[in-house]
Every structure is written in C-alpha cells, then in structure tokens.
Amino acid sequence: DVKVTQSSRYLVKRTGEKVFLECVQDMDHENMFWYRQDPGLGLRLIYFSYDVKMKEKGDIPEGYSVSREKKERFSLILESASTNQTSMYLCASSLAIGGEDTEAFFGQGTRLTVV
Amino acid sequence: AQSVTQPDIHITVSEGASLELRCNYSYGATPYLFWYVQSPGQGLQLLLKYFSGDTLVQGIKGFEAEFKRSQSSFNLRKPSVHWSDAAEYFCAAGTEGTDKLIFGTGTRLQVFP
Question: Residue B39: its pLDDT value, please?
Fold first, then answer.
C-alpha cells in the first residue's frame, strides 16, 4: 500500500514562529502536494512539486514556502506563523501527470494551531 | 475555468436509508473523476474513480457512482447507509495533461440511528 506520512498529527505554535511540516511518501511518486483544509472551503492547494527541487505555486501560496530536496520528502514551511494559518494541512502524492496516475494518496493530516 | 461543485454542504440520513451525494464539474474535456471520504481527524481515502468506459463505477464500502456526461455529473450513491459512513465526502476532478486535482468543497454526511 502507498503510504504518505506526515510527521505530526497536532502542532501548536506561537505567532511569528517558523514552522516546518514534513511529509514522506514511500512509493516513488513524482508529484507531491500540500493542501490546506478549512470548513466550508474544502481543500485548497498551497504548493506542489513534480520533481526534486522543483515547485509550483498553487492557489494560496502566500505566507508559505516548500522544499523538496529528496524525491520522497516534501516540506511545507510557514516563515512566520500567523493565527490565520491555523488549519488542517494535508500532504498528498501521485505517481505522475495525467490519467489514472493523477490519483492522489493522502497523509493523515496535521492540525496546526497558531496562538 | 475548471471547477467542481458539491451543492450539498450537509446531508442527514437515517441508518439503512439510501444515499446520493451530488457532484457537478465544469471542464472543457471529459475529466477524470474521483470520490474521497474523510473520517473525522483523518486524511482522505479514495472511494472510487472514473477514467473511461463503463459509466457506473463500483468502489469500496459499497459505494458506487455514475458518470453522466449530459449532466456534467458524477453522483455518489449507496443503497443502505451504515452509521460508520458518517464522514465528509469530497469529489475531485483532473484532466489529461494536468498535474493536479480540483476538489469540491465537500459534503458532510450525518447518519442517525
């Protein structure tokens, strides 16, 4: 089975802190994604990566950055956490672009609270 | 612009009743379509997917969905709901040559005993 693992289930951070959310997948997938989930808004794409060291902005990249130094690992970085970044963060991966390979596999999510 | 719409934010059904969750898409070409389920505090799990061929697709946990091109819909159905089906359900779509899925805003299902 494909496994996508997020390093933390719950995080509480202070305003202004630099926050790292880590995600690892074990199926040699090309694509990795970071989503943010908020009630009534569904899943919104923050950033995605289709290769090592490559990244693309999603729909809501402001206040976030990402790092992909190895194929299996994709990190989301909040440079200076703010209370409006309190949310559920979901990492996903997919094998490749297009067709059946677009199927996304999700991690368990990290619920981040910024106080 | 490409979009996925789930018109129902919240649905309540009795255990044993039938269920239909609606999903409409707006794409230039026939999209690839997915239904995911999210239990409280969990990530998303794939229920089923449609790429081509038979427009009625079977998924896990007794769910099925029907692709209707004329209505731009991909509704999820289950003949008899169990209390454990209470969760949030997301419809998603992608197309050939694109590298990401577009998700609907989700439908929260509540099941009464």
Answer: 92
Closest Cα partner for A51 from A29, A79, A27? A29
**The two structure tokens encoding residue B69:** 């091109």
> Could you write out the DSSP letters of every residue in B22-85?
--EEE-SSPPEEEEEEE-TT--EEEEEEE-SS-SEEE-GGG-EEEEEGGGTEEEEEESS--GGG
- Chain B positions with Cβ closer than 8 Å to A: 9, 32, 34, 36, 41-46, 49, 51, 90, 92, 94-101, 103-106
- Chain B CB contacts of A49 below 8 Å: none
User: In this complex, do B34 and A58 lie within 8 Å of one another by their Cβ atoms?
Assistant: no
Q: What is the pLDDT of residues B5-43, one digit of tens each?
A: 999 999 999 999 999 999 999 987 778 999 999 998 888
Q: What are the chain A neighbours of B95 within 8 Å (beta carbons)?
A: 98
Residue with tokens 């959310």: A21
Residue B48: pLDDT above 90?
yes
Query: Taking a C-beta distance cutoff of 8 angstroms, is the pair A50, A68 a contact?
Result: no
**What residue type is A27 in one-letter code?**
M
Q: Tokens at residue A6, please?
A: 């997020």
Q: How far apart are CA A32 and CA B109, in angstroms?
A: 29
